[in-house]
Design a protein that fits this description.
It contains 17 helices and 15 strands. With about 425 residues, the protein is an alpha/beta fold. The protein is elongated, with a radius of gyration of 26 Å.
Length: about 425
């Protein structure tokens, strides 16, 4: 069974083609607009595309050109009423693999589909590229990377982490002798929504250039239709790991870490990007020779673009009314309710993180995640001094926590920059107090 995309503005004809191909045991999606087809091809892998020429917005020739220019290798059959030899030449030269004119017989179309799929499968089976590295075939097979261009450009050396959705490798770029992390989707996670989120994360991080945000160097799809991201490799441990191993972080060190996280989030907010999943496990502490570890913000897979425009609208469309994104212990009340979010939701999540960093415990905790979500809406947290009576907290810090964890967004700090300034002022005071002792 092949996954096929049919692009034709003739809804009656595309419906007939869809029904016929489904009867041939194929999985078929139908799109009636060129721009929508181009958007879909950027995020969803297909085994074959059937493309009409004439469409109301952009024509099939433009879609194929964009697809080929972006590195797309999926076979394309043009199905069009244009019958001249010149038109066939244009279609095949632009990147179509076959050209069938209307009217046509369904049996001829399915025969051409079978031929295109056989050719595509034969090409995939042949190792097109020699992989870098020695005795790493077993590692490469974990990501279906043997014979891919990606494995010929990066030397894969270790498996960093693996989950139900993604897998992350350590690799080296030999020309620059640079260690990178390569993140891929698992084969069983190649669903449209997952692919959209993965692509969104790459695009969002690609817009962010900040010392406290992990960088993305490259994004693409392998010949086996596996999306990947080449990212900054971060040697160190997560903030979550630091807290679980050492408990509450001493205030001077905590403030140094928190101010840098603030600065990174503020940079994202300046570009109208809301992270929506701020938590200690998404903060890595990068080891840097001769200085304190540098916090790096990860995982923009839940991020939301607030700005208008095609790209922003595509991302916002994923946030359906009544659907909550994020991790329950760090979700804002409006996030729990599935309401529209802005930067102040990240400020609340940061408040939960701040509370955990300085006390070693969450402001709201329960074995049941649903109970935690209700706590964000209905309950008040214990002040720092009550949560940890064995520790001393400045009154200014209690005030900062109270504002960040306000249930009403209007009562919180209205920007991450304002919050950062308060933390910087507190850090200066703590430093003076420490020096005077």
């Amino acid at each position: 069974m092949a996954k096929i995309l049919v692009v034709d503005d003739d809804e009656d004809l595309s419906g007939i083609v869809q029904d016929w191909l489904i009867s041939e045991n194929h999985s078929v999606d139908v799109i009636n607009r060129g721009l929508k087809a181009w958007s879909r091809l950027q995020i969803q892998p297909y085994d074959l595309v059937i493309m009409d020429w004439e469409m109301p917005d952009i024509n099939g020739i433009d879609v194929i050109k964009r697809f080929r220019d972006s590195g797309g290798t999926t076979p394309v059959i043009m199905l069009t009423g244009r019958t001249s030899v010149d038109d066939k030449e244009v279609g095949l030269d632009i990147g179509a693999d076959d050209y069938l004119t209307k009217p046509f017989h369904m049996k001829e179309l399915t025969a051409r589909i079978r031929a295109a799929l056989r050719k595509s499968e034969a090409q995939v089976k042949q190792p097109l590229f020699k992989p870098l590295g020695i005795d790493n075939e077993a590692l490469l097979s974990r990501g279906d990377l043997i014979g891919t261009a990606l494995a010929s450009r990066y030397e894969f050396s270790d498996l960093i982490g693996e989950g139900s959705v993604g897998i992350v490798f350590r690799a080296r770029q030999p020309q620059l002798d640079k260690i990178v992390a390569i993140k891929m989707l698992q084969a069983n996670a190649l669903k449209e929504e997952t692919i959209i989120r993965f692509q969104r994360e790459a695009k969002v991080i690609g817009r962010l250039q900040h010392p406290n945000i992990a960088m993305v160097y490259e994004f693409g799809v392998t010949e086996r239709k596996r999306p990947f991201m080449v990212m900054e490799f971060i040697e160190g441990r997560s903030l979550d790991n630091l807290i679980s191993q050492e408990g509450a972080v001493p205030l001077p060190r905590a403030l140094t870490i928190l101010i840098q996280i603030c600065d990174g989030i503020a940079h994202a907010h300046n570009l109208r990007i809301v992270h929506r999943d701020i938590k200690p496990s998404n903060i890595m502490l990068k080891q840097v020779a001769g200085r304190e570890a540098v916090p790096k913000i990860l995982d923009f897979g839940c991020a939301k673009l607030l700005e208008p425009g095609v790209e922003g609208q595509d991302i916002i469309a994923l946030t359906k009314a009544g659907h909550a994104f994020g991790s329950p212990p760090y979700m804002s009340p409006e996030q729990v309710r599935g309401q529209q979010l802005d930067e102040r939701s990240d400020i609340y999540s940061f408040g939960c993180l701040l509370y955990e960093v300085v006390t070693g415990s969450l402001p709201y905790d329960d074995p049941n995640p649903i109970e935690i979500m209700f706590m964000h809406i209905e309950q008040n947290y214990l002040p720092l001094c009550q949560k940890r009576p064995d520790l001393t907290f400045p009154e200014e810090l209690e005030t900062i926590v109270a504002r960040t964890l306000a249930k009403d967004p209007e009562l919180r700090y209205q920007s991450m920059h304002d919050l950062q300034k308060k933390l910087e002022t507190l850090k200066a005071k703590v430093s003076i107090d420490s020096d005077s002792q």
